[in-house]
Amino acid sequence: MRIGLVLEQFDPARGGREQWTWAFTQRLLELGHEVHIVARSCAAKARQLPIAYHPVQCDPSPVVFAEAVRSVLEPLALDIVHDMGMGWYCDVFHPHGGSMAASAERKLLFLPSWLRGLKRMANRLLPRHRTFRDLMARQYADHGQIVLALSRTSAADFRRFHGVEPDRIRLVYNGVDCERFSPERCRPHRDAARRRLGLAHDTVAALIVAHNFRLKGVTTLLRAMRRLRSVGRDVRLVIVGGKHIDSWQRQVARCGLGEQVVFAGRVEDPLPYYAAADCYVHPTYYDPCSLVVLEAAACGLPLITSRYNGASEMFVEGEDVLLIDDPADDNALAAAMRTLLDDAMRQRLGAAARRTILQHTFQRNVDQILEIYRDILDRRGGLPHGYQVFAGRMRAEHGARSTGFSRNPAGAPAEAGTTSALDILPSGVEP
Q: Do 64 and 7 share a structural domain?
């Protein structure tokens, strides 16, 4: 298949969307598919892959970017267009960050209850929010595209906030490379990683990997760490990722947690940090299906997360995960973390989390999406994305030569008197 993947920045060093797309691209290439990346930027490392990169150059507006993406994609006549949450010209709309409207609603939980209504009204008036509402109206409108939900929670958000009909939604949880992320791969890194982080042999190290600290509940986690100072055991928190770390370090110092919290900053490979940790804590306010939680589970780490994390649906509370109802409740979070101070409990929950995640491999994730691709092509009779647009344009440009499109799904020649979709590929692009 000729597959187009749309995202803003194709760079595996960034967040979950980019890391997933990077791994997905590599798997598609291994399977022999032709991959086109349509993005604003492409990392040097990514350009070494045998992909076709189509840069999108436009102003920062997300609506302008989405329209520019459409202009780039239309002439390519790809079999499948898979958008990671940026635009609307696609067969598969896959918003890795979930619904922006649902996320905005969840962020109101940062505020006192009396202020949330005022903030909600202000959001309706702010130009930036109006722009995002315009974008979402086009993204979720029914253009015949499939909307991929990373969890049942996300599927419910798509119906509630955007009116997406259930028959347009497909539920596909994220998957993880359970060979790369595994206790066996972690073990050789553990001692050296703990020494670099200043962790003693008997220290219990909690880990969180995040970029948006506030959304992922780092503030609550710091308050919980203050509650754990009296437990009689050395407990440290390792924070990987993030922006504006200096301000967070000052906050930690003001709380008297300077020696209990380690900021590792952005890292290229999180595996040594999973290896160094004894548990993974992710009290997020909003996460459609957190990849880092799945990676931690694959590494055999016991998990604590909130019910606002769609990944929690993949586990069973008390058996392979500890859940908190309110990501702002530092008392409940501290209680869950106290539970994991017990070595036997950590070992039991970590092993159970690993067994669960083995049912959600990355290969299974890829297989599910490829099956959706095949269903789309079957319904279209094997024709490329946007074929009606091309049919009209080609008739106008080439007259009688282009009387229509025909592509046999099994690869048979086009019927006499028609033009195959392959015939209209731009020069220099092989089928």
A: yes
